[in-house]
Amino acid sequence: MMKKNPPRYLHLAPADELPVLEALDHFKAVLVVDVDVLETVRWDISRWLVESGCKYAMVWGKDAEQWQESIDDAHLEATNYEDVDEADLVITTSHEDDDLSEVFWFAQHRASHPAHELHDTLIVHIADAPRREEIEDQFHDA
After folding, report:
1. What tens digit of pLDDT does each residue of 2-48 get?
2. Overall fold of domain 8-13+26-141
3. Using CA of residue 43, residue 53, residue 102, residue 69, what is the dihedral sign?
């Protein structure tokens, strides 16, 4: 049985400074996007995720496809647009037509990386106000 750590919840308001992600290495991220953000902010968050070691990003909510593209582009930028081996892959999916519970289920049961065991899941909630308990409960019930 694969060891899974409980998900970490991080609330980001669009104007927040991006924190340093301590003790996370090769992790899955579920972006729950509840608000519109400026393209520059989307880029900053995408680059921050890639630089922080995100290896699998699932995006749900507003502009999910644009978020997925931004993360893909941030990864390309970080690797100088060169072909990378499996270990350096960043996998992205967007889930604009799914319920959040389906994305959480996918994150727990299907999202895997060819080169890394991804034990940690970071839920990045991009919203004006946090909903930690509600979102963590939804994750656990998925």
Report:
1. 556 899 999 999 889 999 998 888 999 999 999 999 999 999 999 99
2. Protein-Tyrosine Phosphatase; Chain A (3.90.190)
3. positive
